[in-house]
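User: what does the whole thing look like in 3D?
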Amino acid sequence: MTSTSSTAGTLARASLNTATVKHTSLAEAVAAAARAGLGWFGPWREQVAELGAVEVRRIIEGAGLGISSLCRGGFLTAADPKGIAATIEDNTHAIEEAEALGTHELIMVVGGLPARSAPGAGPRPDATAADRDIVAVRARVADRLADLAPIARAHGIRLVLEPLHPIFAADRAVVSTLGQALDLAAPFDADVVGVVVDTYHVWWDPDLRASIARAGAEGRLASYQVCDWNLPLAADALNSRHFVGDGYIDFATITSWVSEAGYRGPIETEIFNEDVWAAPVQETADRVARDLSEFVLPYVS
Amino acid sequence: MTSTSSTAGTLARASLNTATVKHTSLAEAVAAAARAGLGWFGPWREQVAELGAVEVRRIIEGAGLGISSLCRGGFLTAADPKGIAATIEDNTHAIEEAEALGTHELIMVVGGLPARSAPGAGPRPDATAADRDIVAVRARVADRLADLAPIARAHGIRLVLEPLHPIFAADRAVVSTLGQALDLAAPFDADVVGVVVDTYHVWWDPDLRASIARAGAEGRLASYQVCDWNLPLAADALNSRHFVGDGYIDFATITSWVSEAGYRGPIETEIFNEDVWAAPVQETADRVARDLSEFVLPYVS
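Assistant: Here's the predicted 3D structure for the full assembly of 602 residues, as structure tokens:
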């Protein structure tokens, strides 16, 4: 399945990321997405681990949907040889899984500071100054990309760097802006290392328009993910993502920038939110379709 | 009182911002700062409103401390003529208060999106697409700076733009990076519009080193504020600031960048944190002095 200009502004461009309906079986989630009229579906590695890539692909493609991307590889910030070897091994598996799924795009969350004790928590008691050295950590991310790029190329997969909102810089991603992701991608072919625009993470960036245009000009715009920023934040900030239209983000403007940059691929809704997870899956899929139709698809070209 | 090279790396450079001890009277807070050996004190407009600028100045200078800055003006994002007029009037008062205090630096938090219902809460039910147009809101910030700069100049005051962490982009400040603040300051003389580096807000920024160097080269580095980023976030993210050394920030590196950029002014600890506010004021002032001596002052030149 491919998107063409004839699908511009239609739900055929829309994708449901399985993280939005994480307490539902893959088969039920895919069926709900198909009934809602969406054209694509985005699995995570958890489903591949549970069912195998062949079965995940059969379920999604059997429902007539395309596989927009695989979430996610990454966590590239280990400093010790054993940690580095484990990072390369795990991401090689992720690359192989993406290939088996038949998707081109492997989303990568690069990882946080080694000082962290756990996601969402403070530093380890024994964390050193070096564990807080974010400049050095970013250099290691670049080193690991250099290790992984030839592997990705050999499997026909693109490593898609996801800048995360700076709220997650300590514990999940030392890559915080689209421009920074593009700088990290620059040494590699556009078909091997790309970037994703996730509105939740980048909506605030004063350089966003220029960085989206640059990503398009470089051929690195690999995915467009949408959900809304709202306040107050959830107790776990990670799960503070909201339905498109419920918060502060200007989807009309950002979507038009993404379209002007030449992006013609799937537009994926990815929401981490306890209330959304508690809702019936079809209700969520239908709401995703309605929100995209109202706030996003009219601005797609 | 001035800072000279002879005070480099000593507590004579250190300032206590009154927001760190907000449930204490100004006189008690100033006395605690003086006993802890700090050389400076940073009041807010609340104390000026309560006691008058003359009395605030008498209390701080009477204890042998300098006044490092006044917090804060700003909130420049109103779109309607009445709101714009009120913004100019309020900031003119802030400029006059800074002059009466004898400080040169008026810290400015520029304000969030007009869509907001309240700080820390979601959008108003009647918020429009225009209320979410962050590009237009930023243009209004530039317009208000153009209105206020001549007034500041006439009073010998510098408007000091504070980029806030992107977690606050919706409700408190559409200026999120130091580079963006410098771009907004660029049309004005360095003595009229400057910037502040607050570690909490900018530690994650991949362009931080370059932006600090630029701020120094342009003569706009007006203040250096320190506190730490830790997880989990407090229920009100605004009050999630921590003692230096308790979190993820690499103070050695950022402090050395600020020093290399030529900054020789006060180094101010500003912590919003319910636990810190509940502690005895002298304990807090002593902790501030100890943390600065361990994590910050050794890297000052």
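In plain terms: Chain B touches chain A through 46 residues (CB under 8 Å). The domain at 11-262+275-299 of chain B is CATH 3.20.20.150 (TIM Barrel).
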